[in-house]
């Protein structure tokens, strides 16, 4: 079977899947770890994509970052990168934002949710105690790049240059109100309850950034903008962390 025929077959197959059959499929959340090539005082970063199953750009960007870390381990320097490219496997199979149980998983964290994806990811977040958490998303209703910051005050300092770097590929969202939240130069300091984040009790707090691409832009540009944003986040975080490790 040629690659093209296979793709067509898969497309038809997926479109016929009911939610029940999707749920019956074996399901797992992949986790890929890239260890640093050198350094003792490593910084552990968790990158989470595909928590909304129909947001392909973040998923592709996560795999692109994996290739980068694999091929150029020197560039990772002292980072230990943990990639979770598909956090909502049933939603990804169904090409839906929600999971097969019709839940927005990104509103379920740290609230006693029994959803297996959330239970697993919460246990990972608690066990790994990430220094930084980067969540990759796409917003169909916005026409430019933006992001949410929380955790340490470094988050905003780091997201700003990342948005600048990515704005060479896609425009920045300069609206004062994004998604109902006050924003400045594409940065929102509030956020929804229940989003994927560090455990509430974690100290020192993690740097937390949610990066959003405009869903109607060409996919390859969304992926490229996300990759350059994440690389800039890593570079800037390393610089700032050296000056203020315990903020
Ligand atoms: Zn999303």
State the helical fraction. 25-40%
Average pLDDT confidence is: 89
CATH fold description: Aminopeptidase
The strands making up the biggest β-sheet line up spatially as 1-3-2-4-9-5-8-7-6
- Overall, the morphology is globular
Discrete helix count: 8
Tally of structural domains? 1
Order of helices and strands: HHEEHHEHHEEHEEEEH
Strand content: 15-25%
Task: Work out the radius of gyration.
Answer: 18 Å
Which ranges are low-confidence, i.e. pLDDT below 50, for 5 or more consecutive residues?
Answer: 1-16
* CATH H-level superfamily: Zn peptidases
Chemical compounds bound to the protein: zinc ion
The span between the termini is 56 Å
Question: Could you give a short description of this structure?
Answer:
With about 250 residues, the protein is of the alpha/beta class.
Description:
The protein is of the alpha/beta class and 247 residues long. The protein has a single domain, classed as Aminopeptidase, CATH 3.40.630. The protein contains 8 helices and 9 strands. The protein has a 9-stranded mixed beta sheet with strand order 1-3-2-4-9-5-8-7-6, covered by helices on one side. A hairpin with a 2-residue loop joins strand 7 and strand 8. Helix 3 crosses helix 8. The radius of gyration is 18 Å and the shape is globular. The N terminus is likely disordered. The chain binds zinc ion. The site of zinc ion has 3 residues, from loops.
